[in-house]
Every structure is written in C-alpha cells, then in structure tokens.
Specification:
This protein is mainly alpha-helical. It contains 19 helices and no strands. It starts with a helix and ends in a 13-residue tail after the last helix. The model has no long low-confidence stretch (mean pLDDT about 90).
Length: about 375
C-alpha cells in the first residue's frame, strides 16, 4: 500500500468505528423512518475526515484538468467575474473568487469536496437504518471515491441532497422548497434540473406496472440506442454535455459502456426490496415507496450507461438513496434468520466489489501532506 492508501484505509476504518459507536450511543430523537438518531458527534467527525481527505487531493479523475485550468487563470488579464443567475455559472465564479485569495487550487478543491461529501454523510447519518452500515456502503459502493471525479456534478448532487426532507414530505407545497435546492444545484451543473422530473416520478407507489414499464423501457432504449442516436445528439447540443456531441464521444466507438457488474450490484438489493415489499411498505409507508422508486430510477440510469458510461453521471443524483435503502434491506427485513447472515455477507460482497473499482482511489495524491 502507498502512503496515501494507508491514510485512506485508516480514515475508512476510523469512520466506520466512529459511526458504530455513535449508533450505539444514540440520541432520543427519531429519524424520518422512526429509527433512533446516532450521536451527532459521529456525523461531525466522519464528515470532517472524509471531506478533508477528499479536499486535499490534487488528482483523481477530472480533478487534474480543473487544477490545470485554475492555475492558468490570470487575474490581471481578465475582468472581474460577476455572479450570474444561470446554469453552470457558480463554478467559474467560485474559481475566480478563490483565485483572488490564492493562485493554488487548494481552496477551490476543498470547498467543492466539502459540498459534495458533507451533505451526503449527513443524509446517511439521518436516514439510514444503521449509520455504520451506511458509512461502509458510502465507501464500498464507490460513491465516496467516485465523488473525486466530476467536481461540479457531485457538488450539485450535494446541494440537491440537502433538499431530501422536502423530497420525502407529504406536503404538496414543499415541492417549491425542493425547487430552491434544485435552483442552487443548477447553478453548479444544469443537469440538476432532471431532479424536477425525478421528484414526480419517485413520489408514486412502488412496484406498480409503471415500474416494469420503466425497466423494460430502459432496456429497450439501451438496445436500440444507435437508432435514436441522432435525435439524442441534437438534444445534447443545448446541455452541459454538448461537448460530447461535438467531439464524437458517442460515435467514435472509443468510449465503452459501464461494467455490467455495476448493474448486477444494483439489481440485487432491489430484488431483496421486492421480496420484502409488503412488510417494508407496512412499516415505513410512503417514504419507503419513494426510496425504492429513487433506487429504481438509479438502476435505469446504469442500464443506459451500458451503452455509454456518460449516463452513469445522471445516477449521481440518486445514488445516496440507494445506500439508504440498502441499510434497511440488509438490517430491517421481516425474516430474522436472514438478517443474521445478510449483514456480514453483504459487507464482504461489497468489499470484493470495491476491490474491483479500486482504480477510483488508488492513484490518490496530495501536495499538502
């Protein structure tokens, strides 16, 4: 193991231990699924450790490109950048503000890392059945390590996640409160607007014929994607992904789809959720339906990503809800005998899966420690 991987392993092990202890010393308050909230100190310590480690990186994924473009900014040769109300305007404005303080990109990477990581850990803390299981899955499913690639979109996801309360709310007027979070996320990445559609799609009863239609339709679109590709490329021209339409990303044949194993990893917990559907719906009500629907939508994005991995970027907005759902499927099912072995077996399986995707973190470097 490299020096940085020793640090990463220590943070993961320490984060899991802190989460476990905080769950065993809970508050008297209940979370939205009527589970005891863990000790809040466990959230603070875990979020700080994961957030800072991510923020101290100088590479991984597209971080290198953002670092290079930041260092090429010459404050003396450009006019002050005003804050503008339009999609994607937040990142260049934030880059400019940070550059007024320092020519090195550390502040910008740290701010975006904290925006991406801290809200996610908070939702895992507040909504999971078992906080320690949630933190383990936060790492082992790859959410944490992949959040170091795709700076703007994970920052947008972090902002959207803060609106989870209104996504699960029974009040119809809370939709407009959720829109506030969509608006601020849109400032980072215009693709965040897709959560408006997802909001209405998710707030339906789970496991209806529409569920089957969604999955079958997604598979069908993936199979015939080459036929509808010209129309799709025309749609991309007005989005954040226009560069992929212009540079032959979909037509050159050089970009492959996601690994099929990722889809299998997502299908398994949904199969277990289907088996427990009556019990879970009876215990957790409409919130459980929303959680399942968000996980099904996440799966649909990954099925589409079998054609081209770019579609997996859209799954960023719903991935944290898959983690939360899995904590309940693993630890709160009706069958007690199944629960006794499902927890350890699931963790072992996700450790194996994480070893397969270790490329997402193994090259981590920092210039600050």
């Amino acid at each position: 193991m490299t020096y940085y991987m020793i640090w990463f392993a220590a943070i993961v092990a320490g984060g899991f231990f802190v989460a476990l202890v905080s769950r065993m010393t809970p508050m008297r308050r209940l979370n939205p699924f009527h589970e005891l909230l863990p000790n809040p100190l466990g959230f603070v310590l875990v979020a700080a450790a994961f957030g800072v480690f991510s923020g101290l990186r100088i590479n991984i994924g597209d971080t290198t490109s953002y670092v290079l473009s930041y260092r090429m900014i010459d404050i003396n040769e450009i006019e002050p950048i005003p804050f503008m109300i339009r999609g994607n305007s937040m990142y260049p404005w934030l880059s400019y503000i940070c550059h007024l303080r320092s020519e090195e990109p550390y502040m910008l990477i740290m701010i975006t890392a904290l925006i991406a990581v801290v809200p996610t850990v908070y939702i895992v803390y507040k909504y999971s059945a078992m906080y320690d299981v949630g933190i383990a899955l936060f790492v082992l499913t790859g959410y944490y390590t992949f959040s170091m690639n795709g700076i703007r979109q994970y920052a947008a996801a972090g902002i959207l996640i803060l609106g989870t309360k209104y996504l699960f709310s029974d009040k119809k007027t809370d939709f407009f409160k959720f829109l506030i979070f969509v608006f601020f996320a849109w400032l980072f990445h215009s693709s965040a607007l897709i959560m408006i559609v997802i909001y209405f799609a998710a707030r339906r009863r789970a496991w209806t014929p529409l569920t089957v239609l969604l999955l079958v339709g997604t598979v069908f679109v993936t199979v015939i994607f080459n036929t509808i590709l010209p129309t799709f490329l025309n749609i991309l021209e007005d989005t954040d992904y226009s560069m992929y339409a212009d540079n032959g990303w979909f037509t050159s044949g050089t970009q492959e789809g996601s690994n099929f194993i990722r889809v299998v990893v997502l299908i398994i917990p949904l199969v277990m959720a289907f088996m427990e559907r009556r019990y879970m719906s009876a215990v957790y009500g409409k919130k459980w339906d929303i959680l399942v629907n968000l996980s099904l939508i996440n799966l649909s994005f990954y099925i589409l990503s079998l054609y081209n991995w770019l579609f997996a970027r859209l799954a960023i907005y719903t991935s944290v809800y898959v983690i939360v759902m899995m904590t309940y499927v693993i630890t709160r099912g009706e069958n007690r005998e199944r629960k006794q072995w499902l927890y350890p077996v699931s963790i072992i399986m996700y450790i194996v899966y994480f070893v397969m995707i270790k490329y997402s973190i193994v090259g981590y470097e920092s210039e600050l420690f």
